[in-house]
Structures are given as C-alpha cells and as structure tokens.
Design goal:
- The structure holds two protein chains of two kinds.
- Chain A is mainly alpha-helical.
- Helix content of chain A is about 45%, strand content about 10%.
- A three-stranded antiparallel sheet of chain A has the order 2-1-3.
- Chain A is globular, with a radius of gyration of 17 Å.
- The two termini of chain A are about 25 Å apart.
- Chain B has a three-stranded antiparallel sheet, with helices on both faces.
- In chain B, helix 6 crosses helix 7 (about 145-155).
- Chain B starts with a helix and ends in a 6-residue tail after the last helix.
- The chains are: A mainly alpha, B mainly alpha.
Chain lengths: ~230, ~250
C-alpha cells in the first residue's frame, strides 16, 4: 500500500473519528489497509522533493536519511513481524506492545514519518492561532519556547529525538527521548513536533555542530502540521 | 598540586613521545607558576597524522572526530571537575555513573577517545603486527579463534546490537582469565560500575557513534566495522592485555 496524500488526509480524518481503516488510530501515519491481507509496511514517500528543504537540509541528507535509514527500519520491521504476535497489528499497536528490535524498528518507522511532516519547504516563521496561544500560555513567548526546545535538543546526549507534546491535561511540554523512544508509547502525551537529533540527521550538512542544525530546523518547521496534531 | 600533576602525567605510561614531552612541559609550567585554573585534562595528540588511517577511516573524520568531538569532551570534563582534586581520567571511570551525567558523559567520552586513538595504526604498519602469545591464547580460549572473535565482535557492533550511539569492547574479566565482548551505550565503558555484571578492563574498543563513520560510510556501519580491523594496532592491544591481566586495572591513557 502506498502512502498517498489522500491516505494521509484520511489518516488525519481518523483523528476526528472517521472509520476509514480496520483499527482507527490517532496519528496513524503508516496505516494498514486491511489486516486480512497481511500486507507489509511500506516506506511512505517524502511529502516534498528531495531538494525542497535546501539550503537547510540537503538533498544528499534526505537521500540517505529517507532512502537508507528510514527505508532500513521499514525493511527490518517487515522481516521481524511475520509469524509473530505483531503480525496483525497496526504500527502504533506494535510500538505500544513491543520491546527490543521490533520496538526499535517500528518506533523509528513512525518517528521518521512524523518528522518528515514536521518540515516543509515554505515552513519556518512563527505559528499563529491555537498553536501560538498554547505556546505562549505554556512557555511565556515563542522565543522562550524556541530557546528551551533548542537547549533540550542540543543537550540530548547520544541519539534521540526532541519533542513538543501535548499532555492529557492540555498543557504543552518539551521532552527528550533516546534512540527510538517515542511519546506515543504513553497514553498521556500527543506529539506535536519533533526534531531528529541522531547524528545521521545532520552530519552531512552540519558535522558536529548540532546548534547550526537546530537553526536550520526552525527555518523549516511546518506549523500547519503542528496545528493539525493539536486535535 | 603542580608537582603531583607532573608526577601523575609522567606515570601515565603513554606511548606517545609528544604527549610525554607535553606533559613535562606542562608540569614545568605548573612549577613556575601556571594560572590557578590550569586544566586537569588535555586533548592528547593523535599518534599519527590525520590521513594515516586512510582509506579505512577517512581524513576529514579523523580531523573532526579528534579536533571537535574529543576536544569537546575534554573541555566539558574540565568544566565538570573544576575546583576538584586532579585525578587521572582513568580514576573517574569506576564511579562515573554515580557521579552524574556531566561526569559520566564527558569523563567517559574523554577516556574512550584517548583509548581509541592509541589502539590504531596506519594499515601498512598494522599489517605487520599480530597478537602476542598471551593475547592469542586468551582469544583462542575465550572465542575459539581470532576469526570467531572478529565475527562475534562484528555482530555485537551491528546497528541492531548497539542501537543508537555507543561502543563495542573486548575486555579482560575481573579474574584476568577470559576475554568478553560487551557493547555500551553513549560514552559508557566497562570500567564503570553498573554497566555490566562486573567491572571489566577494555583492551580493544570501537566507536560506533555515527560521527565515527558517517562521512565515509553513511548508514553502512557493518562495512566500517569490518574495515576497521585493517588499522588495529595489535602491538598496543597486546600491551593492553598484558597490563590489565597483571594489574586487574584499566589501561591508562
């Protein structure tokens, strides 16, 4: 099953209760069309051209990051799932019920798909509306939020992700995870935005200088996507 | 004190003449009145040129890995230990986890990288080396053969085994009679209490953080790992083995 634009729109519709898939899931970015068909997961295409994020993230980075790293997580997951308890589960169900290699690959498939949508060629700037209000309410101002998020990202030691999440009480929080860990493992946190801080996300373009990658990230953030994730 | 600092540096047993000379100079400077904030830890020079490990580890990687990544660990451990008694970086390893993240990450990072540079040599030199009789015997006893050890090491270094950032080590156990392969996350190492069932003494280790191989190998970590054997300095590994077996202690860097 190819992850088409219409499938993504359908996946967003799921959040509002539509029953387009066998097991509706919040943020179901890599849905299975039918559990009966036992279909393998597929690598969703990038939501934009490979060079669309330049000069901030190069085509070369996307070639490797999407075409190799993300693809490998999909391939490995498809090798691990058949014949196991995870065979008929959605990606999110697998993430919530697995450990070890199955978890690492499943979560990384999800995390990367979410990440691509957090970036956009005409992204950046500042959010408006409900996102802006929520950021201001929780962090004081957009600049304070940006500084706090950047600090968390720069200080996230080793491989991992930095997230803006919405908690079940409605508050926003900045959370660091390591390796493949993801907020969707918890029922309490809804991811709104993520920045991949594994070195493979920025080494080609920024070498060891993660703060420069963070600056580039802010030029690309897809605030429309963040807004959709709020609900 | 300045005098103990000079003695400490002279006892490290470093194989690098440049390091020793620098240590004498630093000690002498300390004696004649260096500033009070003289740093406890220095970035050691590589024992070879940046391009020396080509084509297996590329020149830009060596440069950035040493001058940026390792340098940052040195700067950070200096910051984290400011005002404290100066001890060799080896002495910070055992309790590093208990000491909290700034020490754990940066004392580990500094030790690991200082250890790493010394274990390697240009490929044409490395090709002439082989394990000592003692090391060869331990390898055969612990793994069956060198090939089997390499095979297990490569499996332990795979992306699925050390997932994310970390290192893979061949260690001598506490008793000093067996070799073990162990992977550690981030900048942890087997000298640290809490990492494995017992503290173990690395004789060989490989950095599998992406920064160690990304410029040349990108996502192809297994290729980096299998190529790495070409630059392993078996003379130094054999020295490491003799030292840790005799002393039940980690190698100084």
């Amino acid at each position: 099953m190819k992850f088409t634009t219409s499938a993504f729109v359908a996946a967003c519709a799921l959040a509002s209760g539509a029953d387009a898939f066998a097991t509706p899931q919040k943020n179901a970015f890599v849905p299975r069309t039918s559990t009966a068909l036992n279909m393998a997961f597929e690598l969703p295409p990038l939501p934009y051209d490979k060079n669309a994020l330049e000069p901030y993230i190069s085509a070369e980075t996307l070639d490797f990051h999407h075409g190799k790293h993300h693809q490998t997580y999909v391939t490995k997951l498809n090798g691990l799932v058949p014949g196991t308890e995870f065979e008929d589960k959605s990606l999110e169900e697998i993430i919530k019920t697995s450990t070890g290699g199955v978890f690492n690959n499943a979560a990384q498939v999800w995390n990367h798909t979410f990440y691509w949508h957090c970036l956009a060629p005409n992204g950046g700037g500042q959010p408006t509306g409900a996102v802006a209000d929520a950021i201001e309410a929780n962090f004081g101002s957009f600049d304070e939020f940006k500084a706090k998020f950047t600090e968390a990202a720069v200080n996230n030691f080793g491989s991992g992700w930095t997230w803006l999440v919405k908690k079940s009480d409605g508050s926003l929080d900045i959370v660091n995870t390591s390796n493949a860990e993801t907020p969707i493992s918890s029922d309490d946190a809804t991811p709104l935005l993520t920045m991949d801080v594994w070195e493979h996300a920025y080494y080609i373009d920024y070498r060891n200088v993660r703060p420069d990658y963070a600056k580039a990230f802010w030029k690309l953030v897809n605030w429309d996507f963040v807004a959709r994730n709020m609900y | 004190s300045a005098w103990s600092s000079l003695n400490m540096k002279a006892e490290t047993g470093t194989t690098s003449r440049r390091n020793f000379g620098a240590a004498i100079a630093a000690g002498a400077a300390a004696l004649v009145g260096a500033p009070d904030n003289a740093k406890a830890y220095d970035l050691p020079d590589l024992p070879y040129a940046f391009e020396a490990l080509e084509p297996y580890i590329d020149t830009p990687t060596m440069k950035i890995h040493h001058d940026k990544h390792h340098a940052t660990y040195v700067a950070n451990i200096n910051k984290a230990t400011e005002g404290k008694d100066e001890v060799p970086i080896l002495a910070l390893q055992a309790d590093a986890i208990e000491a909290g993240k700034p020490v754990r990450n940066n004392a580990g990072g500094h030790y690991n990288h200082a250890f790493f540079w010394q274990e390697m040599a240009p490929a044409d030199e490395a090709a002439k080396m082989k394990p000592s009789a003692q090391l060869a015997e331990l390898i055969d006893k612990s793994f069956g053969s060198m090939d089997e050890m390499k095979s297990q090491f490569e499996a332990a270094a795979a992306p699925g085994a050390v997932f994310g950032s970390g290192w893979v080590w061949v260690c001598v156990n506490q008793a000093g009679d067996e070799l073990k392969i162990v992977g550690t996350p981030n900048q942890d190492n087997p000298l640290m209490k809490g990492v494995a069932d017992e503290i173990m003494f690395p004789i060989l280790g490989l950095d599998v953080w992406e920064h160690a191989y990304y410029l040349k190998y990108q996502n192809r970590r297994p290729e980096y790992v299998s190529n790495w054997w070409n630059v392993v300095n078996w003379d130094k590994i054999s020295e490491n083995c003799a030292y840790v077996v005799e002393n039940h202690a980690g190698v100084s860097v």
